[in-house]
Amino acid sequence: AKWVYTFGDGRAEGEAGMKNLLGGKGANLAEMSNLGLPVPPGFTITTEVCTYYYDHGRSYPPELKEQVEKALAFVGSLTGRTFGDAENPLLVSVRSGARASMPGMMDTVLNLGLNDLTVQALARGAGDERFAYDSYRRFITMYSNVVLGIDHHHFEEALDAYKDRRGYSLDTDLSADDWKALIPRYKAIVEKELGRAFPQDPQEQLWGAIGAVFGSWMNNRAIKYRELHGIPASWGTAVNVQAMVFGNMGETSATGVAFTRNPSTGEKELYGEFLINAQGEDVVAGIRTPQDITEKARQASGSDKPSMERAMPEAYRELVRIYGILEKHYRDMQDMEFTVEKGKLWMLQTRNGKRTAKAALRIAVELASEGLITQEEAITRVEPAALDQLLHPTIDPKADRKILAMGLPASPGAASGEIVFNSDDAEAAKKAGRKVILVRIETSPEDIHGMHAAEGILTTRGGMTSHAAVVARGMGKPCVSGAGSIRVDYNAQTLTVAGQTLKKGDVITIDGANGQVLLGQVKMLEPELSGEFATLMGWADKVRRMKVRANAETPLDARTARNFGAEGIGLCRTEHMFFDGDRIVAVREMILADDEAGRRAALAKLLPMQRADFVELFSIMSGLPVTIRLLDPPLHEFLPHSEEEMQEVAKAMNASVDKLRHRARELHEFNPMLGFRGCRLAVAYPEIAEMQARAIFEAAVEAGRRTGQPVVPEIMVPLVMTKPELDLVKGRIVAMAEAVKKESGVDITYQVGTMIELPRAALRAGEIAESAEFFSFGTNDLTQTALGISRDDAASFLGSYTQKGILPADPFVTIDQEGVGELIGIAAERGRSTRSGIKLGICGEHGGDPASIHFCESVGLDYVSCSPYRVPIARLAAAQAAL
Ligand code: ADP
Ligand code: MG
Ligand code: MG
Questions:
Q1: Dihedral sign, Cα of residue 789, residue 791, residue 793, residue 799
Q2: Closest by alpha carbon to 840, among 813, 860, 862?
Q3: Which position among 538, 568, 619, 711 has the lowest Cβ density within 10 Å, counted as fewest Cβ atoms?
Q4: Residue located nearest, by CA, to atom 20 of ligand 1
Q5: Residues 808 and 787 in one domain
Q6: What is the SS3 assignment for 517?
Q7: Is 779 annotated among the ligand-binding residues?
Q8: What is the dihedral of CA 365, 366, 371, 374, to 10 degrees?
Q9: Tens digit of pLDDT for each residue in 396-431?
Q10: Is ligand 1 within 6 A of the CB of residue 255?
Q11: Which of 202, 222, 243 is the last residue of a domain?
Q12: Is the separation of the CB atoms in 278 and 265 below 8 Å?
C-alpha cells in the first residue's frame, strides 16, 4: 500500500481534494506545489497510517520505513542534501495535520536532523555560526518539549539566567559563542529530566517526532477538542515532513503570516505580520512585536519598524503575486504562512482563513460581486450561528470612556464584566450567572473553556494572530490582545496599569473595535444592520422556502423581530403578560377565587390589560400573522412564594394569609411539567380561555381600525393530547369570536390551532387536524415528553450522554431527529392527510438552531419561529437548507 505522498518542485502526488488522506495541511502543500508555487519539498505520511497505528497496538505498517526513506531521498535530491549527512545535512520540519485544523495536536518541530556534527556543517554551509547554533538550540528546546515532554520553562530559566549574567535583554543580543555555551546546559537539562542524553541520531529524532504526532491524536486535549467539534477519532492525523527553509538567516530573512483579505473587516487587502530574522512560531508567540506587511498598514498602525513592502520589496512583490493566484484558485480568502530565506519567498501553508462574521459577510458578498463565486455559494459561505457576533452591542460613542490601556483590536464587539485571571474561574463565574472578562498574559489551548465562558478576552501579550485573537474571532467574542502596559500578577490576582491596581471581581469593559480597555461598565448600543448584511440576507430570502417568525410578546421584542426581518410572530406566550406590575395581583386574585364568579370578577380586571397588550402587538405586526398561545404554565407559578409576598398579596386582596397558604398547598404539584397546565387549565376553568379569546378578538378589531391592516390572529391551544380536549376549548373560542363580531359589527378572520408537544398528540394528529387549523411543534416539551427528560433537571446527566456518544448532541439544543424528528414527521403527514395544506410551524428553542432548521426543511414545515435575535440566523439557515 502507498502510505507516503511526496510534493515539491512544481509537482506532487497529492492534491487539495485529498484532505481525508493527507490532512488539510498536506493536501494544500501538494496543491501549492502543483500550482508551481515555491514550496520547500517534502512528503506526507497519510492519515491511514494513523489509523493503522492505533489498530495495531501503536505500530507502523511494515512498508512505511522504506517509503519514508525513499521520500527522504527524493527531498534530498531536490535540495541537494542528505538527511543525517555530516557534510551537507538535510534538515526538516515535522508537522501534524488533521483534516480540519485542530488545536491539541502536536506542535511542529523545526530544524530536525541537527546534532553536534551537523550543526557544524550547517554553520560552514551558511557561513554563519550564529545562525547554526541558534537553530540548534531552538531544535533542542522544541524537540525536548514537544517530543520528550520536558517543560519549556527549564530552558527559559537557563536562558534568562545566562542573559542576566551577561547583561543581555534580547535573544538577538546573544552571539554564536553565547549559544554554543548554552547548548551544553540545554543538553544537561535533558539528561537530568530524562535520565538519558538528547538523541543525536537524526533517524531516531525523525521517528521520535513522527511517533509524537500520531501519539498526540489520542492526547486529552485532542480528544476533548474532537468531542466538542464532533470530529470522529477514526479520521486520524497525517504527518508532514518538509525540508527546512530558514527565516533566521539574518536581516534578509524573515517569517510571517498573511491573509488575502482582512480577517476582521473583510476588506480586500493583504493583511498580516512578519518578523525579520526569526523562525516559525516567533510571530505568534509574541516574543517580539511583529511588523506590518504593507506600507499602508504600517502607516495606520504608526509602527516605527519598516513594513515588509519596504524592507523586502522583492519578496513582498512575490507574496502579492502568489496571494492573487491562491485566492483565485481556492475562490476564498486564504490564510498563508511563509518564510523568506535570504530574500527568497517560500510558502509553507495555505488554508481558507478564519474570519469574523462581519468579514465573512463582506468577503462572501464581494467574492460574488467579483464573479469568483455565485450568490448561492455566497449564502453557504457564512455560518448562520456566526451572525450572532454582528448582533452584539458596541460601545455608545457618546459614553464616557475611562481608558485604562490600549491593546490591539483583535476581535470586534464590546463587552463588560468582572475580571478573572484564569479559565476555571471564568467557567465557575459563568455558571453562577456572572459576566466576566478573562484576563491573561497570553492564552493557550487550555483556555478554550474559559474563553467560551467569558464575555470577552484581554491579553497583555501577542499580536493580531496570537492564540487569543484567532480563537476569539472564531468564537465571535470581543478580544483585545497585546495590551502591553498592563501588568498581570496571577498570584495576587490583580492587574496594574497606569498606577492603578484592579483586583479579581472589579469590572472592566473591552472594546474589540479599537483595542481600548476601559474602567467599569460602559453604555452600549444595539447593532445596526446594513450593507453586506442586508445584501446577503436579500439573497438568502430569495432562495429560502420556509418563513421565519419570532417568539415575542413585548412591544420591544416585536419591534426587534421586525427589524431583523421576522415575518410574523410564531409564539406569543401570554403568561409573560401576566407577571407585569399590578397585573400579578389580579392574576393571584383569579387563582385564589373559590368559584367561577370570583374568577370571572378577577378576569374582568385582566381583560383590558390583555386587550391593550394585544392591540399594541397587533399594531406593530400589522398585516403579519400573530400566533397567540393561551395560558400555559401551572397556576401555582403565579402564587406568591415568600412569607413577605404572601402577606402583601393577602392585604391587597383582603384575604387571609391562611387562606392563601391553603390554596397554595392545594395547587402544589409533585411534577408541575406534567401537571395542571396547558389546555388542562382551560378545560377546568374555561372562563380563563374565554377572557383571553375576547381580549384577542377585541384587540384585532381595534388594531385593524388603527392600522387599516387587520391581523389574522392564530389562537393556539397548548399541551393538547386528544381531539375532544381541543374541541372543548375551541368551542369557547369560536363562541367568543361570534360574540365579538356581533358586538363590533366587524368580521374577524382567525384560526384556531394547537401545539403538538405530546407524543400522543403527534400520533393522533390525523384526527386532531379535523379541528386544528394549524400545528405548531412545541419541541421543548415534545423533547421532554418523548425522551422522558426534564429539561430543568438534565444538567446533571445529559453531559455524560453526549460525552459518551449516546446522544449526538444536546437534544434541547439540536433536535433529536431520530426520535422527536420521527414524531414530527408522523404528525406532519397525518395532519396533512386530514387537512391538506394545514399550516405547520415550530416554536421551540430549536426554531433558531441551524441544524434543527435543516431538519424542519426536510419535513416541509411552513415556518420556524425563534427568539428575535436569532431571526437573521434562521433566515440564513433556512436559505442554506433550501439550497
Ligand atoms: P501549525 O499547524 O501550528 O500552524 P505548522 O506546521 O504550520 O504548525 O508550523 C508552524 C510554523 O513553523 C510555520 O508557520 C512555519 O513558520 C514554520 N515551519 C514549518 N515548517 C517549516 C519549514 N519546513 N521551514 C521553515 N519553517 C517551517
Ligand atoms: Mg501553520
Ligand atoms: Mg410547551
A1: positive
A2: 862
A3: 538
A4: 93
A5: yes
A6: strand
A7: yes
A8: -20
A9: 878 899 999 999 988 878 999 999 999 999 999 988
A10: yes
A11: 243
A12: no
- Mind listing the pLDDT tens digit for each residue in 599-611? 999 999 999 999 9
Specify whether 490 is located in the same domain as 591. no
Residue nearest to atom 11 of ligand 1 (CA): 280
Listed in sequence order, the residues at least 6 apart from 680 whose beta carbon sits closer than 8 Å to its beta carbon are: 719
**Three-state DSSP class for 550?**
strand
Helical spans, DSSP H, in 343-466: 357-369, 375-380, 423-431, 448-453
Q: What is residue 282's predicted lDDT score, i.e. its pLDDT? A: 77
Whose CA is closest to atom 18 on ligand 1? 280
458 neighbors 479 (Cβ within 8 angstroms): yes
pLDDT score at 396: 86
Local structure of residue 822 (DSSP, 8 states): H
Residue 375 corresponds to which cell in the numbers above? Answer: 450568490
The whole-angstrom separation of Cα 303 and Cα 307 is 9
Are residues 735 and 783 located together in one domain of the fold? yes
Instruction: Look at residue 474 in the predicted model and tell me its pLDDT.
Output: 61
Residues 403 and 345 in one domain: no
Same domain? 192 vs 237:
yes
Q: What is the pLDDT of residues 727-745, one digit of tens each?
A: 999 999 999 999 999 999 9
Length of the chain: 883
The CATH number of whichever domain residue 442 belongs to comes to 3.50.30.10
Would you say 644 is a known binding-site residue?
A: no
Residue 293 and residue 308 in contact, taking contact as beta carbons nearer than 8 Å? yes
Give the pLDDT of residue 284: 67
Q: Distance from the CA of 94 to the center of ligand 1, in angstroms?
A: 9
User: What residues pair up with 839 in beta bridges, in sequence order?
Assistant: 774
Closest CA to 355 of 526, 463, 270, 469: 469
Q: How far apart are the first and last CA of the chain?
A: 39
pLDDT of residue 639: 81
DSSP 299-352: HHHT-SSPPHHHH-HHHHHHHHHHHHHHHHHHTS-EEEEEEEETTEEEEEEEEE
Which SS3 state, helix, strand or coil, does residue 416 take? strand
Q: Which residues surround ligand 3, an ion (CB under 5 A)?
A: 757, 778, 781
808 and 764: one domain?
yes
- Find residue 350's DSSP bridge partners: 336
Task: Quote the CA–CA distance of 599 and 592 in Å, as a whole number.
Answer: 8
Q: Tell whether 224 is covered by a domain.
A: yes
Residue 528 pLDDT grade (very low, low, confident, very high; cuts 50, 70, 90)? low
pLDDT at 663 over 90: no
How far is it, in rounded angstroms, from Cα 326 to Cα 584? 64
Q: Where does the pLDDT of residue 476 fall: very low under 50, low under 70, confident under 90, or very high at 90 and above?
A: low
CA distances from 876 to 57, 186, 377, 546 (A): 46, 55, 12, 11
Q: Is 339 in the pocket of ligand 1 (CB under 6 A)?
A: yes
Residues acting as catalytic residues: 467, 843
Are the C-beta atoms of 329 and 322 separated by less than 8 Å?
A: no
pLDDT band for 581, please (50, 70, 90 cuts).
Answer: low
- For residues 351 and 208, membership in a common domain is answered with no
Residue 11 to residues 2, 8, 240, 611: CA-CA distances in angstroms?
18, 6, 16, 74
Specify whether the CB–CB gap between 97 and 43 falls below 8 A.
no
Domain that holds residue 832: 544-634+669-882
Q: Cell 526538516 identifies what position?
A: 92
Domain count of the fold of the chain: 4
What is the rounded distance in angstroms from the CA atom of residue 617 to the CA atom of residue 818?
37
On whether ipTM exceeds 0.95, the answer is: yes
What amino acid occupies position 478? P
Exposure of 678 by Cβ count < 10 A (0-12 exposed, 13-18 middle, 19+ buried)?
buried
DSSP state of 382: S
For the CA of 349, the nearest atom of ligand 1: 7
The dihedrals phi and psi of 207, each to the nearest 5 degrees, come to -70, -30
pLDDT, position 668: 87
- Measure Cα distances from 662 to 107, 607, 700, 839 in Å: 67, 27, 39, 44
Q: Is 94 in the pocket of ligand 1 (CB under 6 A)?
A: no
